[in-house]
Amino acid sequence: MTTITQLVDRIQLMLNDTAAAVWAQTDIEEWVIDGIREYSIHFPRTRTTSFELVAGDHSFNLPEDFMAALQVEYPTGETPPQYLRRLARTHPQFWLFDDFYDVEPANANPASDSVFYMSASPTAGEELELTYSAYHIPVANTVPPSIAPITVAIYHEHIIEQYAVWQAHVERLATEVQSPDTTIRLIQQYKLAVQATEASYRESLREAMAAQSAGGWTGPWRVDGNDRIY
């Protein structure tokens, strides 16, 4: 897998700053991480994890990278598989039946875990399997950037590179605005560079989104109450 430092090296080459004489390597690393955060909004990961349930406990915390639930199998190991359905836990029917779940997203920083709620009362030893959309979270805070892998698809890495190049030009413009040289039109030139690099990034993002398969994760299929079952 591509590491953050490998991506930074390529960005420095694009900026003609391989010696980090203009932009510090740590700054570019931060732009890479910011770019991956934005990328996650458009192209989230799909992950699956299992939870060993506590008897009688109707709620538990979800992983830090959780974005949205795609499929919830409970209890696991059934043939055919059994899936829970999403319903607001404030709905009057939620606690009357055993086949509903709800999620309270964290949407907070510092990060607090999202919470999963289930209407069923599990017994000790039962497991629940959750398939969910997840953020692409670099592990730069826990692993040295030289070996921190990224989970962005290799054919989308250029999007992160273009995001970082755009931010580099934004930084140059901000620096010039702080103490402008009135003898030349440098601010206007920087503005044009910012606009051009942002447009390039946005176009790559649009092309990648347009190229996505029309298919996707749909979750379990259910008939309505009027369909005949043979």
Describe this structure in words.
It is built from 4 helices and 7 strands; from the N terminus they run ααβββββββαα. It has 230 residues and is an alpha+beta fold. It folds into 2 domains: 4-43 and 138-210, no CATH class; 45-134, no CATH class. The strands form 2 sheets. The chain has a 4-stranded mixed beta sheet with strand order 2-6-5-4, with no helix packed on it. It has a 3-stranded antiparallel beta sheet with strand order 1-7-3, with no helix packed on it.
Output the keywords:
single chain; 230 residues; alpha+beta; 2 domains; 3-stranded antiparallel beta sheet; 4 helices; elongated; disordered C terminus
List the helices and strands and how they pair.
Layout: H1 4-14, H2 25-42, E1 45-52, E2 59-61, E3 66-73, E4 85-86, E5 100-104, E6 115-118, E7 127-134, H3 157-178, H4 186-210
Parallel strand pairs: 4-5
Antiparallel strand pairs: 1-7, 2-6, 3-7, 5-6
Low-confidence stretches: 223-230
Number of domains: 2
Q: Termini distance?
A: 49 Å
The biggest beta sheet is recorded as: 4 strands, mixed
Helix and strand run: HHEEEEEEEHH
What proportion strand?
A: 15-25%
> Looking at the chains present, what oligomeric state does this protein adopt?
single chain
How many DSSP helices?
Answer: 4
Taking strands numbered 1, 2, ... along the chain, how are they ordered across the largest sheet?
2-6-5-4
